[in-house]
Design a protein that fits this description.
- This protein has 3 helices and 3 strands.
- It is of the alpha+beta class.
- It has a 3-stranded mixed beta sheet, with helices on one face.
- It is globular.
Length: 104
């Protein structure tokens, strides 16, 4: 049986090509659902609706999650509500990008 921690670990291997932070810590993943059969559904967003790398990032997430033993399919839904903002980033990501509360 697959657990959410395994899926998150896989997602953390995917980095935004324009930012040296993984998509989980950027706060781009909004929801993860895992069925009993091993099918994974992910709701995610991008930092901007005009992100030129959105298709590539979604494919990288899909590939990473599909590589988890026991996963039997991955669906990714790109959502824009709620809109992404810097508050969704992990503390580690903000520190990595030097975005302290004073800086934003």
């Amino acid at each position: 049986m697959i657990n959410k921690e395994q899926i998150i670990a896989a997602i953390k291997t995917v980095f935004d090509p324009e930012v040296p932070v993984n998509v989980w810590d950027l706060g781009l993943i909004y929801d993860i659902k895992i069925s009993d059969s091993g099918h994974v559904k992910i709701k995610m967003t991008m930092t901007s609706p005009t992100c030129p790398m959105s298709e590539e990032i979604m494919q990288m997430v899909k590939f990473a999650v599909a590589s988890v033993v026991g996963v039997d399919g991955v669906d990714i839904e790109l959502v824009w509500n709620p809109p992404w903002d810097i508050s969704r980033m992990s503390t580690e990501a903000r520190l990595e990008l030097d975005l302290t509360e004073d800086g934003w």
